[in-house]
Design a protein that fits this description.
The chain is of the alpha+beta class. The protein has helices at residues 2-10, 12-29, 48-59, 76-87, 98-101, 113-119, 136-146, 156-189, 195-213, 222-235, 237-251, 257-284, 293-329, 340-368, 386-398, 413-424, 435-438, 450-456, 475-491, 501-535, 539-561, 568-597, 602-634, 638-660, 662-668, 670-674, 677-684, and strands at residues 34-36, 67-71, 92-96, 120-121, 124-131, 152-154, 219-221, 372-374, 402-409, 429-433, 461-468, 497-500, 565-567. 67% of the residues lie in helices and 9% in strands.
């Protein structure tokens, strides 16, 4: 290791230039990383709704309706004119309205009222529109230009277009404020005016390289795009700080800065890698998710931490050696007060806090698993956004509505007629558009015009368009999807295809709930194993993991006790992120406690440990808290906002438990910990288990 770091220091100028060149390339490459804002795109490729969409795209020119457009105060002829205008928009492949379901030469009063009111009610028309995925950004504004101020649009294509345009500026704002906050935190907790600039420079290089290298994935999710950079910033903050402080210590024992840096790198490696490893493992647990936003985010975050580690060991030595004179000349007195009195105060309540902790474990676990969930994208935008207001306006006039498409093998019109009749009898299906409904089983296909026929039949399949009066997700929706699939399977066993927003949400629910157990199990098991190897104790990993897991349960139980619903995707992701990002606090507390055991009695060891580590824990914890809450309160995308709230609130929960509860647990299990006193004493000198303790 020493030989390697000797070469790093020797070739520091070359490494510095190389990193700057890579950073520049990645800065340019970042502009070419595409971002996917559609949740449904991350369903497994073999799930039923995904397979159905693939088959429909192969068989039919038009896709699944993904937008609903409401136009007020129009007559039937005016509505038909609007339909043609919308259909002429570039990127719109199909528009379905009342004329596709009934014969408009017949008076409306003589037609089925449920069918009519699905499309036309109170002089208001509701169109089902299909927009190509690649045209959503341009097609949605073009349709809005056609509509009046009182008209409205909703649907997955509209929400995806809104998320794409709005999230970019929000992410930029969050990043800027986060960097400013980190700068002032470092300014307050370090001893040089120059040090925050060095740390942020190293972090900036790592973040840019990670963001640009996402090009290897081709495309990343909107969750990764919004959360990846700022989470990397928050969890990697301490690596550079630790190396700078180690370098300052080693300079007192070496004649040249180069030798001091080599020594500092050798002494830092174990600590920094140990801290980074637990974080990487927590993030990599997300790779096990079938729902592909998990692997997308997990790989990007794990890669980001790995790049941060590489940057600290290769780029930072060059940067520090080039600027250490400025570190010396800009020294200032510490701004952070002494925490000795705080440690004494906490010691007096830590055992009662352990009792409170024990009392809340089971209730918080049960409450955290009893939340009401949103699985899809229908609640991503709140009522205070244009999308939310439009959705509510359409709901007020037409109630809940969605469109499903059912494909069945072509050729057996008698079976199709029987299937259509049974679907018509389902309470929540308000309209069925199909060949047998439009023409009847007895009328040959050649009697229909080519346009209509091409939308209803392909070479292999007949297409049924089902209008339903259920929301995009919920118990009624999921029950209806199950009934439609059951009926279709009875007539066409394992040879039908069903798709639609509600259907995709059903499959999304089915997928992400199956992910929960294995993702949590892997994250907990892997972190437990790392702690077992690091701490060489069986009891300590149990205590530490229980502390952080309970902090996670408390975090998620707050949503339950507030009576709010949460996005299951955010619920699933936060468990791994909170464990990976905050377990370092518990490691730091434990390591310093074991070190202080060597020289102090039971009463003093708790207060001394707390006073020693509070600044370090608060520094990292406050950054993660602020970064999370920034995302929570700035994002108009409610999924990202809730994930941000979970991250910020989770960091606070972890901080409270580590500072106020963990010391009492360590004191209670002192005998178990004392078994390792001799071994610990041999290893603590120059071998801290966690990098934050040197801050």
């Amino acid at each position: 290791m020493k030989n390697f770091y000797t070469k790093v220091v020797k070739h520091r100028k070359l490494i510095f230039v190389l990193f700057l060149a890579i950073c520049l390339v990645c800065l340019i490459a970042q502009a070419f990383v595409s971002v996917d804002y559609d949740i449904d795109d991350y369903l497994p490729e073999d799930c039923p709704s995904t397979v159905s969409l693939d088959v429909m795209q192969e068989e039919f020119d038009g896709g699944i309706p993904n937008a609903r457009v409401m136009v007020r105060n129009v007559t039937i002829p005016e509505a038909l004119a609007y339909k043609e205008q919308i259909k002429a928009v570039d990127g719109v492949t199909d528009v379905t309205w009342l004329d596709d379901a009934v014969d408009l030469t017949i008076p409306l009063a003589a037609l089925d009222s449920d069918t009519v009111e699905t499309y036309y009610k109170d002089n208001t028309a509701l169109f089902s529109v299909t927009i190509e995925d690649e045209s959503r950004i341009t097609a949605v504004p073009a349709i809005r230009e056609i509509l009046g101020d009182a008209d409205a649009m909703t649907g997955s294509a509209v929400s995806t277009a809104a998320a794409t345009t709005e999230t970019v500026s929000e992410v930029s704002l969050i990043s800027i404020v986060a960097v400013i906050f980190v700068f002032f935190v470092l300014l307050a907790t370090t001893s040089s005016w120059m040090e925050p600039l060095l740390v942020l420079s190293g972090l900036g290089v790592a973040v840019v390289i990670n963001a640009g290298s996402n090009l290897i994935f081709g495309e990343i999710s909107f969750v990764t795009n919004a959360a990846g950079n700022i989470l990397q910033l928050a969890v990697s903050l301490d690596y550079s700080v630790f190396l700078i402080h180690r370098f300052a210590e080693c300079r007192a024992n070496h004649s040249t800065p180069e030798k001091a840096m080599i020594d500092a790198l050798c002494k830092s490696t174990t600590s920094i890698l140990s801290s980074g490893l637990t974080t990487v493992i927590g993030f990599l647990a997300l790779v096990l998710m079938q729902f592909r936003i998990g692997p997308d985010l997990g790989l990007a975050l794990a890669k980001g931490v790995a790049i941060s580690l590489i940057t600290v060991f290769l780029f930072m030595p060059s940067l520090i050696l080039m600027t250490y004179q400025y570190l010396d000349s800009t020294r200032h007195r510490p701004f952070v007060p002494d925490f000795t009195k705080f440690g004494t105060a906490v010691r007096s309540i830590t055992l009662p806090m352990v009792c409170v902790f024990a009392a809340v474990i089971v209730p918080s676990y049960l409450a955290s698993n009893s939340n009401d969930y949103y699985y899809g994208s229908s609640h991503i935008f709140g009522a205070d956004t244009q999308f939310g207001a439009d959705t509510e306006a359409i709901r007020e006039v037409f109630g809940e509505n969605d469109t499903y498409v059912l494909l069945v093998p072509r050729g057996d019109t008698a079976t199709e007629t029987a299937l259509s009749g049974e679907l018509h009898r389902l309470p929540h299906i308000t309209s069925v558009i199909s060949y047998v409904d439009m023409a009847g089983a007895e009328i040959p296909p050649e009697y229909l015009d080519d346009d209509t026929l091409s939308q209803l039949e392909s070479d292999h399949y007949s297409r049924m368009v089902l209008s339903v009066d259920v929301p995009y997700e919920g118990e009624e929706t999921f029950s209806l999807v199950e009934k439609i699939r059951s009926i279709a399977n009875r007539y066409y066993p394992n040879s039908y295809y069903l798709a639609g927003e509600g259907v995709s949400t059903y499959d999304l629910m089915d997928t992400v709930t199956a992910d929960m157990v294995k993702v949590n199990f892997l994250a907990i098991g892997a972190v437990f194993l790392v702690l077992l190897l690091m701490l060489k104790s069986l009891a300590l990993p149990v205590i530490l993991v229980l502390c952080i897991e309970t902090a996670g349960w408390i975090n998620l139980s707050v949503t339950y006790f507030m009576g709010s619903s949460c996005f299951y995707i955010a619920y699933l992701i936060i468990s791994s992120i909170q464990l990976g990002a905050t377990v370092d606090y518990a490691i730091l507390m434990t390591d310093r406690y074991r070190e202080n055991q060597q020289t102090l009695g039971k009463r003093d060891v708790v207060s001394k440990t707390i006073s020693d580590v509070t600044v370090s824990i608060l520094t990292s914890g406050s950054v993660l808290t602020v970064v999370g809450l920034l995302m929570g309160y700035v994002s108009s995308n409610q999924l990202l906002a809730q994930l941000g709230i979970f991250i910020g609130r989770g960091a606070i929960c972890s901080l409270i438990i580590v500072i106020f509860v963990l010391p009492g647990q360590l004191l209670l299990f002192d005998r178990l910990i004392s078994v390792f006193k001799k071994e610990t004493h041999k290893n603590i000198q120059n071998q801290p288990l966690n990098l934050m303790e040197e801050k």
